[in-house]
UniProtKB/TrEMBL annotation:
Pfam families: Hydrolase_3. It comes from the Bacteria. Keywords: Hydrolase. This is Cof-like hydrolase. GO terms for cellular component: cytosol. PROSITE patterns: COF_2 (PS01229). One of its GO terms (molecular function) is phosphatase activity. It comes from Candidatus Syntrophocurvum alkaliphilum. NCBIfam families: Cof-subfamily, HAD-SF-IIB. InterPro entries: Cof (IPR000150), HAD-like_sf (IPR036412), HAD-SF_hydro_IIB (IPR006379), HAD_sf (IPR023214).
């Protein structure tokens, strides 16, 4: 089957090391759209953080954000999917991260919310390109807000792996737990993953999964790359992602997304 929908991760996939979309990738996406192919973003980022890139590409389709917890159209703002973290588990996860002594934050009402602007928090604020909101207590705020996801950040990768394993053992049946980068540990609703969110979009537009191309690089892209009819891994992708992909393109700094689009859509 021909490709009718392309879902593309942002960080380390569509974005280069300078967090920019190259002219070659932008032109390839425009050419694909001119052929009638739908293109969307599938990212762990906030909606407000992903939106400027969608506008740069003139995308008018539902965006997959927060690892799939929120699927929202970039122009009409229609919401197709919303799966926040349940309150009980949110409290337990926040208390666990606090006990471990790592930086953690969450997202209320599409805002990045922290209790303290730590060095890890400053790093993430710069990466996301959004203004943080400082709250006295993220747990107390659960009485008012539902969290899209909860994220821990630490440069101690061994510790992060241990935390990931422990959380999966205790909550793997109820929550979606993944790493988007080696030092980002993210906790979402069990239904909040890029594959389930992508299925919502294909059902909405009556597109067969065999007509979907998904492009990504990290652990949080595994599900959608396996689910799509054509799964593409970046050259800089994690080994586990390359192993499940149907094709490995060049790296994000070598315009790998453009190469994949030219090969499977424009050729």
């Amino acid at each position: 089957m021909s490709v009718k929908l392309i879902a593309i991760d942002l960080d380390d996939t569509l974005l280069d090391s300078g967090l920019r979309i190259s002219d070659e990738c932008a032109k390839a996406i425009t050419a694909a759209r001119e052929k009638g192919v739908m293109v969307t973003i599938a990212t762990g980022r906030m909606y407000s953080s992903a939106l400027p890139y969608a506008r740069q590409l003139n995308i008018d389709v539902p965006l997959i954000t927060y690892q799939g917890a929120w699927v929202k159209n970039s122009l009409s703002e229609e919401v197709l999917y919303y799966e926040p973290v349940p309150k009980k588990e949110s409290i337990e996860i926040m208390e666990y991260f606090k006990k471990c002594g790592v930086h953690y934050h969450t997202y209320y009402d599409d805002r990045l919310c922290l209790e303290n602007l730590t060095e890890e928090g400053k790093f993430y604020v710069k990466l996301a390109g959004v203004e943080p909101v400082i709250m006295d207590s993220l747990i107390d705020a659960l009485d008012t807000y539902d969290p899209f996801k909860i994220m821990a950040v630490t440069d101690n990768e061994r510790m992060l792996l241990d935390m990931e394993l422990e959380l999966k053992n205790n909550y793997g049946d109820n929550l979606h737990i993944t790493r988007s980068k080696p030092f980002f540990l993210e906790v979402m609703n069990k239904k909040a993953n890029k594959a389930d969110a992508l299925k919502v979009i294909t059902d909405h537009y009556n597109i067969d999964r065999k007509e979907v191309m998904a492009v990504g690089d990290s652990y949080n892209d595994l599900a959608m790359i396996e689910w799509a009819g054509l799964g593409v891994a970046m050259w800089n992708a994690r080994t586990s992602v390359k192993e499940v992909a149907d094709f490995i393109t060049t790296s994000n700094d070598e315009k790998g997304v453009a190469e994949a689009i030219h090969r499977f859509v424009l050729a």
